């Protein structure tokens, strides 16, 4: 009977060169793993720093109290924390309501060349890919800069990027604008890049924009006269103090004009209060048409209006007052029912020069209003339909 032999285990020691090779390979693998670990730790630290900077950015924009403050934070900080070469913001502003209100509240848009306005959604740039399950929403569009598609978001007067991300600003499933991110690195934004992070950032910015614009609109409503649409006394009192301080620093004159509609009570008595309201609205329109954008018109109540003229001497303010007087008297006021009424106005004008700046701003403002009121009284006492200047 033949027996099969069992395999004999080779217990001879492994050659030294094989051990050395395996040890060397393990050392290399260990170094590679350590390098990868160090890289991951570095990336985690970098990502943690980026996250902390963005969290600080979120807190800063959430705490912004005004439209210019919010826009300043976005344009100043976002390029730094996201390492971007250019950031612009496009807002949908049908009827120019936002632009008009912010300008009337004193926003200087020359300070924000990267802030853009469009009056229709079609002007918000290239159509962004809709989410299949939520067609009302849009996703960011990313890729190389294309002048035909992106020039409106990055005007030639600004830096031209090599790659861009056009991120929709969404509120209630509607686009209110776009956040436009640009980089000189052509590989920074590609169609395959993940968008969760920038979508989150855009959602925070959209919420803050909507909140601050709503607050500014409410502020504007509180500073305007509901009947005529011009400012009210509260606004002029505040604006006058601001302009006195600015005039004191920059060395120019400001003037104040007090206007009263002559015999306005006769309009209400003869034609009714709705007719009087029409006259007041048309009076505001005629006064406004003679003013510069920098000037401010307010209804002080009843039939009285006040005009604040910036960087205007007494002589130049008197010229404007004469134009307003001629505009009022030169053409009858036609009511909606066709009734034609001849109207006139009396105006008092006063000016504050550098010599008046010895007083505190509050005292100086009261004196200026009192001087214009005194001049108006003199115009009324002198026969109405006159301009009187208070030296």
Task: List the SSEs and their pairings.
Elements: H1 16-62, H2 67-81, E1 86-92, H3 97-104, E2 115-118, E3 130-131, E4 134-138, E5 141-144, H4 147-150, E6 163-171, E7 174-183, H5 196-222, E8 231-232, H6 233-250, E9 254-261, H7 264-271, H8 273-289, E10 296-301, E11 304-310, H9 314-330, E12 333-334, E13 340-341, E14 345-352, H10 361-381, E15 387-390
Parallel strand pairs: 1-2, 8-10, 14-15
Antiparallel strand pairs: 1-7, 3-4, 5-6, 6-7, 9-11, 9-14, 10-11, 12-13
Helix pairs in contact: 1-2, 1-5, 3-5, 6-10, 7-8
Q: What does this molecule look like?
A:
- There is one protein chain.
- This protein folds into two domains: 34-221, 2-Layer Sandwich (Beta-Lactamase); 231-390, 2-Layer Sandwich (Alpha-Beta Plaits), CATH 3.30.70.
- It is elongated.
- α1 (16-62) packs antiparallel against α2 and α3 crosses α5.
- α3 links the parallel β1 and β2 (115-118).
- The strands form four sheets. It has a six-stranded mixed sheet, sandwiched between helices. Strands 2-1-7-6-5 form a five-stranded mixed sheet, covered by helices on one side. Strands 3-4 form a two-stranded antiparallel sheet.
- The chain is 47% helix and 20% strand.
- The N and C termini lie far apart (142 Å).
- It is of the alpha+beta class and 391 residues long.
